[in-house]
């Protein structure tokens, strides 16, 4: 895991190229050259902490419920039932698993050293999906020996990184057979290599985000793919005659600590584990504004009441040690809380000595003191060695550990992950109904967006803000309303008219136009030609705009400075937490819009012309499908389809605009089709790269 990521070159630059102009351009109408120039206006953003505090409250309540569930365990039967239930819930997050297919392993090279041999190994975790690994086999020992699968954290060189070589060598010198493998997107397994065999996206985190966000559309989870690589690595290790299957461990640091933790929850064959520099709590990461990779955020995990410690609880009562760091960005307080909770569980199972915590004094990384704590723990379980410190090591050059001729599996025709996503999308398209009526589509929309039925009668509460000086809007008077769409969340609505309203909204026309902003209503009221066109075409109709949560007036200022458009920034941060909560961000924004439509109905607007642009066109589409109040729809820069995004190698739509598993049920063209009777008008649709369609 990387603490901060700048916007990468190449594909992700499309995000800025096509989405930033509104936010960064001058915010005033053009003036004559001899007129006095007014300074550009920054878009209004009066609720920058709203989204963060909402999510903290949601996750905090879940953690309280989880703590209570664990606290009421009283005896061994309760503890065993809890462990079984944890395993069931984990399987709901990570499964279903693919069929196990032939590994087709091959050894491509051997490195001879004084105390061990290194075999460079390639196997297939899925057909045509190659995994590169190094197998360390001790010399001068009687077989079989304990085995360990090593999972790598984020590094450009994967298994060849010095700290990861170090723990594999250290274990081998003490008598363990160690298989350490490259994660996808790292080492020899780049998924987006260019002609120079360098990543077009960015190694590690960036490839994980790019592939993983896209996978959600087809119901896949990158964490499951990476865990499956680990399961198949274990399968390969157990084929070796050198291995004692009764003594099998797993360890890794950072992103490898993530995988070690997840593997504890999904694979029952481990007999010991040592995750390093990962285990804390979801709440601590959220409160500390710490983004995590796609694979570090299991879908529905929070909704199912799971936390990091539960994946280790799934191992109980087998021996597990949590390796933490005092100066890590993974909050050590969470690691301590996880340990104390697990210690109580293990005590109920008469195995309190089988759970441990070691906190090294330094910062993030699999440093020597943490490696030595891991050695001591594994040695205590296996009895293979009594060493208390790390033996002398010899760090190899990357080339010695390469399994492929030039260091990348693409030259061996390994299928990139995006091809699997494309194939899955095409398969789902064949399974979906070819024609969906409005009545059949509406429940599907509600289901994938996790929207409850609305009675349409109870209009939301709202506040009326004091207006600032003129913002240069196309009408002379305007009022701002904060419409409470749910506790802790306000949609920001501007009403433009010829008279100033200082109290409740009042319909002067039965019909209203409601514009859903792309990035900022305040900015787009000055900059967006479509708004000027709409007002000029129907000057007497009441005109409203809305910023749904996380947009415009509630654009978060959390995580890293100015991180909103960063693929690892705060817009992603809340989108991925929404997936863990099983409430897609698009669904939450659609809910905001539906509540604003209820609010407009109370004000006297029985007919609404719904207009959405860019990111705002997506909730506008879904709300138009669901609301009888919407009589006309205009969409500018709406995505052509989710299938196109899922089936493209490159795309520029952020995670906050994607809906998990939507393509198993329907696609956006199904919505566009049923909106034809509502006079749907499409203006410059955008393709997967957020560029106008030819």
TrEMBL record:
Please name the Pfam families in this protein's record: AXE1
Query: Where would I find the Acetyl xylan esterase domain in this sequence?
Result: 120-287
SUPFAM superfamilies per record: alpha/beta-Hydrolases (SSF53474)
Highest taxon above the source species: Bacteria
- What protein name is recorded for this chain? Prolyl oligopeptidase family serine peptidase
Q: What lineage does UniProt assign to this protein's organism? A: Bacteria, Pseudomonadati, Planctomycetota, Phycisphaerae, Sedimentisphaerales
């Amino acid at each position: 895991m990387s603490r901060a990521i700048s916007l990468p070159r190449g594909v992700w630059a499309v995000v800025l190229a096509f989405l930033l102009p509104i936010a960064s351009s001058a915010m005033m109408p053009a003036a004559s050259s001899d007129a006095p120039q007014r300074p550009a206006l920054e878009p209004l953003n009066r609720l920058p902490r709203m989204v963060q505090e909402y999510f903290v409250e949601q996750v905090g309540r879940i953690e309280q419920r989880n703590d209570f569930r664990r606290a009421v365990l009283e005896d061994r039967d309760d503890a065993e039932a809890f462990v079984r239930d944890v395993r069931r819930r984990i399987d709901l997050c990570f499964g279903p698993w693919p069929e196990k297919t032939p590994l087709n392993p091959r050894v491509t090279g051997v490195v001879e050293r004084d105390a061990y041999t290194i075999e460079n190994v390639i196997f297939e975790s899925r057909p045509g999906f190659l995994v590169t690994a190094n197998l360390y086999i001790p010399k001068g020992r009687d077989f079989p020996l304990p085995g360990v699968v090593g999972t790598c954290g984020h590094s450009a060189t994967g298994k060849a990184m010095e700290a990861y070589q170090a723990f594999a060598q250290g274990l081998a010198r003490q008598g363990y057979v160690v298989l350490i493998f490259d994660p996808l997107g790292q080492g020899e397994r780049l998924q987006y290599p260019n002609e120079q065999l360098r990543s077009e996206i960015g190694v590690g985190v960036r490839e994980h985000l790019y592939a993983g966000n896209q996978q959600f559309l087809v119901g896949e989870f990158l964490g499951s793919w990476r865990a499956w690589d680990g399961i198949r690595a274990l399968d390969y290790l157990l084929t070796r005659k050198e291995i004692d299957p009764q003594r099998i461990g797993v360890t890794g640091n950072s992103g490898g600590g993530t995988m070690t933790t997840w593997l504890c929850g999904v694979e029952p064959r481990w007999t010991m584990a040592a995750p390093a520099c990962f285990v804390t709590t979801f709440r601590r990461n959220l409160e500390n504004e710490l983004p995590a990779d796609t694979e570090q955020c299991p879908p529905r995990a929070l909704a199912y009441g799971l936390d990091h410690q539960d994946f280790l609880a799934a191992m109980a009562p087998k021996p597990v040690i949590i390796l933490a760091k005092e100066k890590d960005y993974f909050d050590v307080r969470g690691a301590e809380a996880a340990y104390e909770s697990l210690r109580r569980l293990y005590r109920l199972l008469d195995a309190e000595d089988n759970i441990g915590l070691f906190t090294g004094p330094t910062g993030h990384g699999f440093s020597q003191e943490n490696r030595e704590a891991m050695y001591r723990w594994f040695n205590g379980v296996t009895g293979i060695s009594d060493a208390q410190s790390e033996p002398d090591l010899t760090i190899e050059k990357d080339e010695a550990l390469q399994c492929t001729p030039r260091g990348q599996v693409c030259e061996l025709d390994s299928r990139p992950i995006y091809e699997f996503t494309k194939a899955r999308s095409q398969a789902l398209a064949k399974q979906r109904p070819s024609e969906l009526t409005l009545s059949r589509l509406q429940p599907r929309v509600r289901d994938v967006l996790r929207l409850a039925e609305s009675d349409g009668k109870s209009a939301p509460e709202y506040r009326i803000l004091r207006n600032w000086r003129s913002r240069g809007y196309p009408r002379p008077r305007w009022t701002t309303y904060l419409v409470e769409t749910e506790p802790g969340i306000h949609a920001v609505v501007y009403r433009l008219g010829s008279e100033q309203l200082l109290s409740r909204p009042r319909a002067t026309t039965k019909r209203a136009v409601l514009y859903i902003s792309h990035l900022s209503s305040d900015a787009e009221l000055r900059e967006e030609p479509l708004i000027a066109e709409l007002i000029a075409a129907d000057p007497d109709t009441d005109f409203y705009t809305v910023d749904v949560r996380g947009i415009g007036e509630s654009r978060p200022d959390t995580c890293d400075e100015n991180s909103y458009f960063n693929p690892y920034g705060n817009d992603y941060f809340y989108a991925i937490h929404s997936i863990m909560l099983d409430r897609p961000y698009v669904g939450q924004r659609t809910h905001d819009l539906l509540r604003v439509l209820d609010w407009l109905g109370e004000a006297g607007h029985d007919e609404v012309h719904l207009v959405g642009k860019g990111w705002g066109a997506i909730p506008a589409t879904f709300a138009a499908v669901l609301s009888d109040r919407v009589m006309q729809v205009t969409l500018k820069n709406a995505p052509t389809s989710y299938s196109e995004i899922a089936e493209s190698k490159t795309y520029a739509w952020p995670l906050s605009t994607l809906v998990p598993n939507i393509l198993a049920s329907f696609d956006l063209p199904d919505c566009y089709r049923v909106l034809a009777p509502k006079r749907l008008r499409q203006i410059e649709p955008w393709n997967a790269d957020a560029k106008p369609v030819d």
